[in-house]
Design brief:
CATH class: Alpha Beta
Shape: globular
Strand content: 5-15%
Strand order of the largest sheet: 1-2-3-4
Order of helices and strands: EHEHEHHHE
CATH architecture: 3-Layer(aba) Sandwich
Helix content: 40-55%
CATH superfamily: NAD(P)-binding Rossmann-like Domain
Bound molecules: nicotinamide-adenine-dinucleotide
Length: about 180
């Protein structure tokens, strides 16, 4: 209908809890396939036409869980950590074709994935943010739109947290 694809958003993802010894192999494979291999497959499908046109943008959804470690989230940390570096490889390889590739790295966001937590857990997360709030899906979408558009023309290969500040804290106890 529109003749060509200007932008691809690689957003599909799933989550699993557990330390390494608690995860079964099928869970490991499913999370890695959905969160990492999906970006490989979708990019392989769409990037040849972008290379031909010498333009295009790709935005992947990573996570603050790719930038830092979390308790009880081994496979999700591994998957999103892979996406955090994959974006750099893609941006290096496709820059010469005028194709830009960036990641959005959301913090806890009020989508069905996160809202499946008990209310008390959601409240606890909101209180842990320096802004005392969670991320709205629209906050992430607006950043994706920016990265997909010419408004972000000089930006490529970057990880852009949209996180209400969750990943900025070193974890040291508060000193009075
Ligand atoms: N919600 C959060 O707190 C949060 C934080 C950081 C990153 N993320 C990331 O944001 C992205 C979107 O997650 P969400 O929070 O909207 O979760 P969600 O569970 O609400 O939505 C996930 C989406 O991925 C799709 N999906 C899952 N498996 C798929 C498959 N095999 N094939 C095709 N589509 C598939 C689902 O249909 C759904 O539309 C994911 O990559 C997730 O890891 C979410």
């Amino acid at each position: 209908q529109f003749g060509h694809v200007d932008s691809v958003i690689n957003n599909a993802g799933i989550f699993a809890k557990g330390a390494v010894h608690e995860l079964d192999e099928s869970t490991w494979d499913r999370v890695m396939a959905t969160d990492v291999k999906s970006i490989f497959l979708t990019t392989k499908a769409f990037v040849p036409a972008m290379i031909e046109r010498k333009s295009g943008t790709i935005v992947n959804t990573a996570s603050i869980s790719g930038l830092q470690g979390d308790y009880n989230m081994a496979v999700y940390n591994a998957a999103k950590g892979a996406v955090v570096n994959l974006v750099r490889a893609m941006a290096l390889d496709y820059g010469k074709y005028g194709i830009r590739v960036n990641n959005v790295n959301p913090g806890p966001t009020l989508t069905p994935m996160f809202k499946s937590n008990p209310e008390s857990v959601i409240d606890e997360f909101a209180q842990a943010s320096p802004l005392g709030r969670l991320v709205e899906p629209d906050d992430v979408a607006r950043t994706m739109f920016f990265l997909a558009s010419d408004e972000s023309a000089p930006i490529t290969g970057e990880n852009i947290p949209v996180s209400a500040g969750f990943e900025i804290y070193s974890g040291q106890p508060v000193q009075q």
